[in-house]
Amino acid sequence: MEMKPFEETVYLSSPTMHGDEIKYIQEAYDTNWMSTIGANINEAEKMICQKVGCADAVALSAGTAALHLAIKLAGERLYGQARVGHGTLEGHKVFCSDMTFDATVNPIAYEGGEAVFIDTEYDTWNMNPKALEKAFEIYPEVRLVVIAHLYGTPGKMDEIRAICDKHRALIVEDAAESLGATYKGQQTGVLGDYGIISFNGNKIITGSAGGMFLTNNLEDAHKVRKWSTQAREDAPWYQHEELGYNYRMSNVVAGVVRGQIPYLEEHISQKKAIYERYKEGFKDLPVTMNPFDDKNSEPNFWLSCILIDKDAMCKQVRGEKDALYASEPGKSCPTEILDAISRLNAQGRPIWKPMHMQPVYRMNPFITESGNGRARSNAYINEGAVPDVGMDIFERGLCLPSDNKMTKEQQDVIIEAVKRCFV
Ligand SMILES: *Cc1c(COP(=O)(O)O)cnc(C)c1O
């Protein structure tokens, strides 16, 4: 029997407002600080510093802008200032998470660098330290690693830090999805040399847009603040010695961020409850939840995901832009489950398609635990050989509706719909 769709859409992850946000927006309006200067920006920066435990935070227009400036800062430190019209990473390779949102990777290209994608590990769905080690064997000259904490789950930072220290490489930490998650008691975003968070509309807390650069180095903070406001020098006129950007956060957006920050913990505990209800609901199904290292880390549970056991996968074929599957008793696949969720008027999503499989990055190197992963990926496409870890998780995994406003009853219906896919 067909299940009745929800009257209102159950989202993957949507903004959850609490009332204080409008108060601070109103304050910006009433005081006429309707620009990229104002009390909301200053307060939001201070509050985030306190929350994550860093010396300074710079409020920017987006997480992507924060990543761009973090990566540019790393590029300058490593290779010196670039001539205008040239990126700081030109002629240089940068190691980067492979299974992530493209915003993690694109700023490397903005700065003229070449991303080398590092395969994923099953333990946390983040960068595999063994593959990173392998990448340094192949490209010992690399000095920069960009790592994302996927879906709010911290990666293996100690292992990655040790490898980077050994090779004198800097770390840019993309904590866009993981604000509030901790690794060995420390917040993500301050575990690397440069860190960033995002306040995009679907993140754990939001400003409707926005992001922040996080640092313990006040000089770095000063530089990012300056770059983000068109790189004006301290002079009576517009004096420019460096290339600038218009990346500063608006004081109106900062009002939303300021209003949201006190609710971070509440959102995390709601997301955690959602994760645990899914886990319980699926205990008899051939699936596992997105995993984390429960000894060393506490995720923020931004998105709940499942991975279908290999022997419980029905046939599924994905082209560049479409997907087909053949239903089988006792088996299912992400495409079938995402269809079922969508018929309920709820939102699921495929796992981030690995960057090495994206047409835009088709020429970039890709390294797995055993070396050059390109050879293996091509064999997988052409001959159906074992895929790399990232492609395997992409093939068998999916993100479930994880909105913190989803009711228990709605979640029960979603759990039932997923169960029926395996009947
Ligand atoms: C959302 C996100 C970003 C980008 O943040 P924006 O604020 O949307 O620019 C970067 N990296 C990851 C992993 C993200 O999920």
Automatic annotation (TrEMBL):
Keyword presence, NAD:
no
Q: Which family does it belong to?
A: Belongs to the DegT/DnrJ/EryC1 family.
Q: Which UniProt keywords apply?
A: Aminotransferase, Pyridoxal phosphate, Transferase
PANTHER family to which the protein is assigned, alphabetical: DTDP-4-AMINO-4,6-DIDEOXYGALACTOSE TRANSAMINASE (PTHR30244:SF34), TRANSAMINASE (PTHR30244)
Q: What is the lineage of its organism?
A: Bacteria, Bacillati, Bacillota, Clostridia, Lachnospirales
Q: In Gene Ontology terms, what is one molecular function of this protein? A: pyridoxal phosphate binding
InterPro entries registered for this protein in UniProt: DegT/StrS_aminotransferase (IPR000653), PyrdxlP-dep_Trfase (IPR015424), PyrdxlP-dep_Trfase_major (IPR015421), PyrdxlP-dep_Trfase_small (IPR015422)
Q: What is this protein called?
A: Aminotransferase DegT/DnrJ/EryC1/StrS family
- Using the UniProt record, name the top-level EC class of this enzyme in a single word: transferase
**Where in the sequence is N6-(pyridoxal phosphate)lysine found?**
K203
Q: Which Gene3D superfamilies match?
A: Aspartate Aminotransferase, domain 1, Type I PLP-dependent aspartate aminotransferase-like (Major domain)
EC number of the protein: 2.6.1.-
Q: Which residues form the signal peptide?
A: none
Picking any one GO biological process from the record gives: polysaccharide biosynthetic process
Which residue positions are annotated as catalytic? K203
